[in-house]
TrEMBL record:
Transport is among the record's keywords: no
HAMAP family: GatB
Enzyme class: ligase
GO BP terms: glutaminyl-tRNAGln biosynthesis via transamidation; translation
Xref: InterPro entries: Asn/Gln-tRNA_amidoTrfase_suB/E (IPR017959), Asn/Gln-tRNA_Trfase_suB/E_cat (IPR006075), Asn/Gln_amidotransferase (IPR018027), Asn/Gln_tRNA_amidoTrase-B-like (IPR003789), GatB (IPR004413), GatB_Yqey_C_2 (IPR023168), Gln-tRNA_amidoTrfase_suB_CS (IPR017958), Gln_synth/guanido_kin_cat_dom (IPR014746)
Keyword terms of this UniProt record: ATP-binding, Ligase, Nucleotide-binding, Protein biosynthesis, Transferase
EC number of this enzyme: 6.3.5.-
Asn/Gln amidotransferase domain span: 358-505
GO molecular function: ATP binding; glutaminyl-tRNA synthase (glutamine-hydrolyzing) activity; transferase activity
Record-given protein name: Aspartyl/glutamyl-tRNA(Asn/Gln) amidotransferase subunit B
Catalytic activity: L-aspartyl-tRNA(Asn) + L-glutamine + ATP + H2O = L-asparaginyl-tRNA(Asn) + L-glutamate + ADP + phosphate + 2 H(+); L-glutamyl-tRNA(Gln) + L-glutamine + ATP + H2O = L-glutaminyl-tRNA(Gln) + L-glutamate + ADP + phosphate + H(+)
Length: 506
């Protein structure tokens, strides 16, 4: 038992002096198939509740499921991309438990016969010395299953069931194809555990985007991560009791949740307590996990083979055909882009680390130079995404918008400062970059008439500066340019203003 004097969370450094963390990551990916896993209902996100349902996904008696071939194809491609073996024959199983958002009272899943198993992948993290450090992650399995519906708890403060006065349930999501990708326990990462966990999920996103099998939006729940973590005495090489933190819904939260659990478990163990094997909830706002339900390894889901579905037996030729048509692996893809863009290792790593690789690629495809694309996504956009707590690609600015704004800068119609105001407008829903420029009147003034008048005013207001320039101290022009820019609310063409000042003061 922990005593009242012991801290609730040990510092990360102290925790690692005494313990080794082991990670286990379960990632659920919603596939982007047009129809559900076992019926023809549409899968589009955001429809009116309970409008995309039928007897099969509602689990009405007598309804018969049929496997979605496209979902099987995606599962095989994911398995192959993760270097897994593909089962020549496998079955679905019923995972029995009761939950209001699961209409059948069982989830059609896979148990001891997953479609893909025994794989591996590699993630790269910063080694802290300007280089890269690779970690090989063993994949236990990737199996097919279906999503549940979604409960909405009404009347409570936090949207949680506690304190709510009633709950609603939307079955549109019930039956959407899911792939669950499960790692073997990841050991030996020590203080890098939080970074490795985050890098792994980011890597999976990149890989899945490349495969085109899911839109992998963590904030919309099409990619969800459960973080398993345990500690063992430093150097022991054993596995301790794990907790499973559910639905950690951003990359940053994956890192934070691992860090927090290490500190929390270390405090309990250091005080002579023991870890309860349980699910835990992640709280984005406070950055802590709280206890969910106890859950043993032998959780009795009464799995048994699904009698209403025929086994899945993908032909070897088909699997080989799919293997032959896989896109280039992320590492090869990155190397190719780095060469084409002329990025340094550091620039490339920052781009990947920020989850901006695909966005930069699309921005370049839309006409921007690689450096300008990188600059916008990693500075201004990253700051905005961070402030709003969303991933970059969910910000609401598209690669085409960024490319267009940069084109306006290159044409001299706006400057970087005005460009940021254009993005403000785009994010406020005021339209395309061009529409925002027009509506807000953001174009740079390079018309000599207006500029000349502003320069005259500035010279008159700062005679001592003007004298210096007349005496040949050209560097002093900066002060006058600043005055003109201020007068024209940043909308003057700075280069032209400088020319005019030097012309006038000869
Ligand atoms: N002692 C441990 N410490 C850390 N990770 C562990 C430990 N034991 C198992 N794991 C990892 O935890 C994850 C367990 O996921 P898995 O899907 O196998 O089971 P589950 O969480 O019990 O089942 P469910 O899918 O119903 O949530 C795996 O990634 C596994 O490698
Ligand atoms: Mg699992
Ligand atoms: Mg689990």
């Amino acid at each position: 038992m922990s005593t009242t004097t012991s801290p609730e969370v040990l510092s990360f450094e102290e925790a690692l002096e005494r313990f080794d963390p082991a990670l286990g990551l379960e990632v659920h990916v919603e596939l982007n198939t047009a129809t559900k896993m076992f019926c023809g209902c549409p899968t589009e996100f955001g429809a009116e509740p309970n409008t995309q349902v039928c007897p099969v996904c509602l689990g009405l008696p007598g309804a018969m499921p049929v496997v979605n071939e496209k979902a099987v194809e995606s599962a095989i491609r994911i398995g192959l991309a993760l270097n897994c073996r593909i089962a020549p024959w496998c079955r679905f199983a019923r995972k029995n438990y009761f939950y209001p958002d699961m209409p059948k009272n069982f989830q059609t899943s896979q148990y001891d016969e997953p479609i893909a198993f025994d794989g591996w992948t590699e993630v790269e993290i910063d080694d802290g010395q300007g280089g890269l450090e690779r970690h090989r992650i063993e994949i236990e399995r990737a199996h097919m299953e279906e999503d549940t519906g979604k409960s909405l708890h009404v009347g409570g403060a936090t949207g949680r069931i506690h304190g709510a006065d009633h709950s609603l349930v939307d079955y549109n999501r019930a039956g959407i194809p899911l792939i669950e990708i499960v790692t073997k326990p990841i050991m030996g990462t020590r203080e890098k555990a939080p970074l490795v966990a985050k890098a792994y999920v980011a890597h999976l996103r990149e890989l899945l985007l490349g495969l085109g099998v899911s839109d992998v939006r963590m904030e919309q729940g099409s990619l969800r991560c459960d973080v398993n973590l345990s500690l063992s005495p430093a150097g022991a090489g054993t596995l301790g009791t794990r907790t499973e933190t559910k639905n950690v819904n951003s990359l940053r939260s994956v890192e934070r949740a691992v860090r927090y659990e290490i500190g929390r478990q270390a405090a309990i163990l250091s005080a002579g307590g023991s870890i309860v094997q349980e699910t835990r909830h992640w709280h984005e706002d406070t950055g802590v996990t709280t206890s969910g339900r106890e859950k043993s390894d032998a959780e009795d889901y009464r799995y048994f083979p699904e009698p209403d579905l025929v086994p899945v037996a993908p032909a070897a030729e088909w699997v080989e055909e799919l293997r032959g048509a896989l896109p280039e692996p992320p590492r090869v893809h990155r190397a190719r882009l780095q060469e084409a863009w002329g990025f340094s290792d550091l620039e490339m790593r920052d781009t990947v680390g920020a989850g901006a690789l695909l966005l930069v690629e699309q921005t370049v495809a839309a006409g921007a130079s690689p450096q300008s694309a990188r600059k916008w996504w990693l500075s201004d956009m990253a700051r905005r995404a961070n402030e709003q707590g969303v991933e970059l690609d969910a910000l609401g600015v598209t690669p085409a918008d960024v490319a267009r704004v940069q084109a306006l800068v290159d044409e001299g119609r706006i400057n970087d400062k005005l460009a940021r105001q254009v993005f403000d407008g785009v994010l406020a829903g005021e339209g395309t970059p061009d529409e925002v420029v027009t509506a807000r009147g953001l174009e740079v003034v390079s018309d000599d008439g207006a500029l000349s008048a502003a320069v005259d005013t500035a010279i008159a207001a700062h005679p001592e500066v003007a004298d210096k320039i007349r005496d040949g101290k050209v560097a002093a022009a900066g002060a006058l340019i600043g005055a003109v820019m201020k007068e024209m609310r940043g909308q003057a063409d700075a280069g032209r203003v400088r020319e005019l000042i030097l012309e006038k003061l000869g």
